[in-house]
From TrEMBL:
<dbReference type="InterPro" id="IPR036388">
    <property type="entry name" value="WH-like_DNA-bd_sf"/>
</dbReference>
<keyword id="KW-0805">Transcription regulation</keyword>
<feature type="domain" description="HTH crp-type">
    <location>
        <begin position="148"/>
        <end position="221"/>
    </location>
</feature>
<dbReference type="InterPro" id="IPR014710">
    <property type="entry name" value="RmlC-like_jellyroll"/>
</dbReference>
<keyword id="KW-0804">Transcription</keyword>
<dbReference type="InterPro" id="IPR036390">
    <property type="entry name" value="WH_DNA-bd_sf"/>
</dbReference>
<dbReference type="InterPro" id="IPR012318">
    <property type="entry name" value="HTH_CRP"/>
</dbReference>
<dbReference type="GO" id="GO:0005829">
    <property type="term" value="C:cytosol"/>
</dbReference>
<dbReference type="InterPro" id="IPR050397">
    <property type="entry name" value="Env_Response_Regulators"/>
</dbReference>
<feature type="domain" description="Cyclic nucleotide-binding">
    <location>
        <begin position="14"/>
        <end position="134"/>
    </location>
</feature>
<dbReference type="GO" id="GO:0003700">
    <property type="term" value="F:DNA-binding transcription factor activity"/>
</dbReference>
<dbReference type="Pfam" id="PF13545">
    <property type="entry name" value="HTH_Crp_2"/>
</dbReference>
<dbReference type="InterPro" id="IPR018488">
    <property type="entry name" value="cNMP-bd_CS"/>
</dbReference>
<dbReference type="Pfam" id="PF00027">
    <property type="entry name" value="cNMP_binding"/>
</dbReference>
<keyword id="KW-0238">DNA-binding</keyword>
<dbReference type="GO" id="GO:0003677">
    <property type="term" value="F:DNA binding"/>
</dbReference>
<dbReference type="InterPro" id="IPR018490">
    <property type="entry name" value="cNMP-bd_dom_sf"/>
</dbReference>
Amino acid sequence: MEADTESYFKQVNLFAGLSEDEIRELSSAARKRSFRSGEVIFHRDDPGQVLYVIKEGKVKICLISPDGQEISLVVLGKGEYFGEQALLDGLGRSADAIALEKIECYTLQRSDFHKAILKNPKIAISVLEVLSKRLRNTDQQVEDLIFLDVYGRVAKKLLDLADAHGIQASDGVRIDVRLTQQELASMVGASRESVNKVLGYFTDKQYISTDRHRITIHRIADLRRRVY
C-alpha cells in the first residue's frame, strides 16, 4: 500500500513541494480509510487529530443545528483534503464531514503533518491559501443569502458545482455529485419544497435535466443570467 500512497501523494497539490524522500516518509505514516455513503466522518467539536486526503468519492462539509437543520458549506472531491483547521489550531472540529458517496481517503496524524510542515513551509502556505479560499466562499454564501432569491441561489450553486465537479457531456455539463433536492436545499439555505419548484422551472426551461440525482446543465449562459 505504501507504494500506492506514495504515487498518489505525488499528484496531490498540497505535497507538490516535497522531495522524494519526504513523500516516502509521509506515505509510510499515512493510513487508508473507507467510508460508506452517508457515513459521518467526524462531527463538529470532535477532537481534531487527523487530516484526510480524498482519493476517491465526494465529501460534504456542513453545519447541523440542534433541531437537525443543515447548511452545506462545500463539497470536496479527489485530491482535496479536509480537517486541516483543527490540526493547525488544536481545537475541535469546526463542522461536520459526511460522505456523499462511498469514499476512500488517506489519513495523517497531526504530529506527522506538523513534521512535514516544518520540513517544507510551502505546505503551510498551501493550507493557508485553501483556508482563505474557503473563508471567502463562506462570505459569498452569506452575501448570496442576503441578496439573491432562491432561483438565483440555486442557479449559482449549480454553476459553482459544475465548475468544481463538472464532466463535459455531449449535451452539456454533468455535475458529478449525487444531489437530492434536500442536499441542494442545504447548500442554498432554502426549503426542499422551494428547491423542488426552482428545479422544475429550470427543467421546463430546458436549462437543466436530472437523472438519478445527477444534474446536467444544458444552457449555462441562460442559467448564469438567472443568478441576478
